[in-house]
Design goal:
The protein has helices spanning 6-25, 109-112, 286-295, 302-310, 314-326, 338-353, 364-372; strands at residues 41-48, 54-64, 71-73, 76-89, 94-106, 118-128, 130-140, 145-155, 163-165, 169-172, 192-193, 197-205, 213-220, 223-229, 231-235, 238-245, 253-263, 266-277, 377-382, 388-394, 399-405, 412-418. By secondary structure, the chain is of the alpha+beta class. It is globular, with a radius of gyration of 24 Å.
């Protein structure tokens, strides 16, 4: 691995900070590069109904303020957004349409750059079994640019099933849906959890089922990491399945969670969602913070870093971990440090993508991805010895990294850096 001197690490942090501002605050550039499209988040969820040949489909759309263009007017900032939803069947006949229009005002410029405040739209409709095409369109009224998304959705015929389980959703905060009506709350459009949350699904039982059992299974790194009971509220033949979670108690990082349902003479069924837990360091256990400190080795420097590496107690580690990242935070929001989050997002990606016998973040390609982000281009070929090689091209730093699979086992080594 190539070592980094102190001045090189400062350059890396400058690149990382610039990358965060480009991707977090000014994401989704058009191909022309002159204006930006609207970035929006959507979730399309399917739930059972009383009728075996139909499904309730719920659409939830969210647009962050920082992806709209605001214009200063008097003492406020103003913008407007239109959102159109079209659904057609396989013969392209229109079967559903919904249109929204919303005026948005912000009291100050920092609010216009908010990621946590959203323009939200939601609706639901019942669809017969079959194939459908869904078109989503968002239009920023200040610049007149629209962003399209086209999706194909299949609604299955559930008539032969004894029990039909709906999709798994995430609701912000902890809820007791035995006394609260879930329809009064909006599920998250994204799968990132930074605070307490509740998972919910709905199952329809066409007939009573003996030995009915529900459980929540968490998976991470191809192994089961926890198992929880699922709480139920009955509403006729419908069961509302839910489980509240404290952010303090769930594993950090990316996990797959299943609500699994089984019973006598019933085929086991499950609904699954991937979610990413991003904790404040206050919620880290000793193993989590030790892993994070080890993963920071590529950028660690300075007095805060030295104190962090030498800290003995969990409290001291948390203190100096925060102190280290505060030096590189462009935001005052205590819940989010985009530079820190981007760094560990790259670590998690490297772990998943570059598993070469060693942990992905330790590999040469993993290290390069963590320090410089995704390359502008990857050129794959073979060298004169018929070994696979990759050249990663970074336009922003005018560098190219040559990786070669020396042993033919899929382990790529960094052989050269071209300026």
């Amino acid at each position: 691995m190539i070592g980094l001197q102190i001045h090189e690490k400062k350059i890396i942090f400058s690149i990382l900070l610039a990358f965060v501002f480009v991707t977090v605050l000014f994401a989704s550039q058009t191909q022309k590069g002159s204006q930006k499209n609207i970035k929006y988040f959507y979730r399309i969820s399917k739930f059972p109904t009383l009728y075996p040949d139909s499904t309730l489909v719920r659409f939830d759309i969210a647009i962050p303020y920082n992806d709209l263009v605001f214009i200063a007017s008097d003492s406020v900032y103003k913008t407007g957004v239109k959102f159109n939803l079209f659904v057609t069947d396989k013969e392209y006949n229109a079967v559903f349409e919904k249109n929204w229009r919303k005026k948005v005002e912000a009291d100050n410029y920092p609010e216009t750059q908010s990621e946590t405040t959203f323009c939200r739209f939601d609706t639901k409709s019942v669809f017969l079994s079959g194939k459908y095409k869904i078109i989503l369109e968002a239009i920023d009224e200040n610049i007149g640019i629209s962003e399209f998304t086209e999706l194909q959705v299949k609604i299955p015929d559930q008539s032969k099933k004894k029990a039909v389980l709906g999709d798994l959703l995430i609701y912000p905060e902890k809820h007791d849906f035995s006394v609260e009506n879930y329809e009064n709350f909006t599920p998250q459009s994204g799968n990132t959890c930074r605070t307490d949350f509740t998972l919910l699904s709905i199952i329809y039982l066409r007939q009573p089922i003996e030995n009915f059992k529900t459980e929540a299974i968490w998976w991470g790194k191809n192994r089961e990491i926890r198992q929880d009971s699922v709480w139920c509220k009955q509403d006729g033949n419908f069961l509302i399945l839910y489980r509240p979670y404290s952010i303090r108690d769930v594993p950090q990082g990316l996990s797959s969670v299943q609500f699994r349902v089984s019973g006598k003479e019933m085929k086991k069924t499950a609904s699954e969602i991937q979610l990413e837990v991003i904790k404040q360091v206050d919620y880290f256990d000793e193993e989590s913070i030790d892993d994070a400190i080890e993963q920071m080795v590529y950028i660690g420097e300075g007095a805060a870093w030295d104190s962090l590496r030498n800290a003995d107690t969990l409290a001291e580690k948390k203190k100096w971990f925060n102190r280290f990242w505060q030096e590189y935070s462009p935001a005052s929001d205590s819940l989010k440090n985009p530079v820190e989050e981007e760094y560990f997002r790259r670590v998690r990606f490297a772990i998943r993508q570059f598993d070469e016998g060693d942990i992905g973040w330790r590999t040469d390609r993993g290290k390069t991805y963590i320090l410089y982000g995704p390359p502008n281009d990857i050129q794959k070929s073979m060298d004169s010895m018929m070994r696979n090689m990759e050249i990663w091209v970074y336009n922003n730093i005018e560098k190219q990294f040559l990786f070669v699979d020396i042993t033919g086992s899929g382990t790529y080594r960094l052989m050269r850096v071209y300026d």
